Amino acid sequence: MLLKLKNPAGMKALVLNGVKSFSLLDRPLPVPGEGEVLMRVAAAAICRTDAKMWASGHRDLVLPRILGHEVVGSLREDPGRLYAVWPGTACGNCSACRQGRQNLCREMRITGFHRDGGFAGFMAVPRTSLVAVPDGLPASTAALAEPLACAVHAVRQAAIASGERVLIYGGGTLGHLLGLACAERGARVGMIDPDKEKLHRGRGLRLRRGISVEDHSGADAGQVDVALNATSSPDAFMAGVGRLKPGGRFCLFSGLGGAAGDMHRLIDELHYRELLFVGSYGCTAEDMREALRLLSKSGDDLRFLIERTIALDEVPSAMERVLAGKGFRLVVA
Ligand SMILES: [Zn+2]
Ligand SMILES: [Zn+2]
């Protein structure tokens, strides 16, 4: 007797239908389009942006959607090799693309935003988005490649140089990844976060990388070369601006959760002290390659950033906690 398997060429997929509405569905395997391959998902980290999309949408989100843009997986043709996914799909022809700034491409389609991502058993991935994971790096650690690439991108955008004094607002996953990326450039890095528990858990990485914990006293006011925000707090933004030296740079790594206090004061700071502001959003495939090189030598130092691995059906109940910025990365694996 033939045993009839239920949905033999299918997979589980977590689909976001609308605000705070997920469904866990049985879906047929995605059919790769031209230039795409079918990837079996090995690990997909949950980003705070996923929780924000669940709670209130996002400029780049098109519904219904399988979220998950921090993804690692394998291909049927080469099952022993892991690949991280650069979540962008750029046109390759526009002026931004030709300058190597694919993350600013006007045709940009982001995996987990405009096209289906990794909160599923399988996904279709453009071949040009595959970045090989160095041997020996576990899938859950390699899932940090995309957020680390965003940190590498910010370091590039802010042109951080060896010996510069850098202050990072936020000691969560991205704050620590920014710390690592800045320290790798030879910067003297300080970090500020009111969450003592998070800072405590990152102390091993900071000790090995010479990253100090700072407070709000502003003892080094006027001596900071570059400030970066890994928090959406408008107060942290204004405090960082105040601590920059004349001619200093502020890298807007995060958007702000509200108006930035006194706009008049901000404009005066920019004008009289010749401050520079630079934005940073996403990453390029080249940033992903650099992030994976950095992960292959520092992956063990970053293990604390993987809080735990969870199953796909646990993702909806984790959203409130992720949205609140509690703890570090949860990885679906
Ligand atoms: Zn993310
Ligand atoms: Zn383009």
Can you describe what's shown?
This protein has 333 residues and is α/β, with parallel strands linked by helices. The protein has two domains: 189 residues, Quinone Oxidoreductase, Chain A, domain 1, CATH 3.90.180; 121 residues, Rossmann fold (3-Layer(aba) Sandwich). The protein has eleven helices and 18 strands. The strands form four sheets. Strands 3, 5, 6, 9, 10, 17 and 18 form a seven-stranded mixed sheet that branches. Helix 4 crosses helix 5. The longest helix has 14 residues. The protein binds zinc ion (2 copies). One zinc ion binds next to loops.
Output the keywords.
11 helices; 2 domains; Quinone Oxidoreductase, Chain A, domain 1; binds zinc ion; single chain; globular; six-stranded parallel beta sheet; seven-stranded mixed beta sheet; Rossmann fold; 333 residues; alpha/beta
- Helix percentage: 25-40%
CATH superfamily of the largest domain: Medium-chain alcohol dehydrogenases, catalytic domain
Q: Strand content of the residues, in percent?
A: 25-35%
Based on CA atoms alone, the radius of gyration comes out at 20 Å
Strand tally: 18
How would you classify the quaternary structure? single chain
Q: Which molecules other than protein and nucleic acid are bound?
A: zinc ion
* Helix/sheet category: alpha/beta
The number of helices is 11
Biggest sheet, in brief?
A: 7 strands, mixed
